[in-house]
Amino acid sequence: MYHTCLRIVIYAADAEDILQDAFMEAFTSLDKIKKADAFGGWLKRIVINKSINHVKRHQKSWLELEETDLADQPDEHGIDELDFKNKLDAIFEALNGLPEKYRVVINLHIFEQMSFEEIAGMMNVPSATIRGQYLRGKQKIVDSIGFKSK
After folding, report:
1. How many CA atoms lie within 13 A of 34 on its CB side?
2. Could you read off the pLDDT of 85-128 as tens digits, one per residue?
3. Which of 1.10.10.650, 3.40.309.10, 3.30.200.20, 1.10.10.10 is the CATH number of 70-145?
4. SS3 letters across 7-34
5. Structural domain boundaries in the chain
């Protein structure tokens, strides 16, 4: 849970505070969970929601001034999605150096396996914006580590 939170908020002190809040909320709301075996997933969702809320409180805007239709275009860089996901260890440092809006979207999509629509719903922005931020963030990582295209 800590690493999930840390990937979203990036600062260890913030992640620790959020995690503590998430556990407090979970344990004070235990009566709301219907199946005990669902506790782990329920807690993870609380951690993700609290992390995203933290990011939202500290961000300026998720919508870009120069909105383009990048989200509707195919990935023209020839990077295989599976290959990209398999090389995350090599790009972790580049990922942490990304602007917050790109880092959060990439973490949620890849590590938490959330769809662009789910992320958009949590962030209250159009899914095209989330897809565009994912593609831009991915390209920044590719550019910063010299990832080779097909």
Report:
1. 0
2. 666 566 678 888 888 889 999 989 988 888 999 999 888 889 99
3. 1.10.10.10
4. HHHCCHHHHHHHHHHHHHHHHHCHHHCC
5. 2-57, 70-145
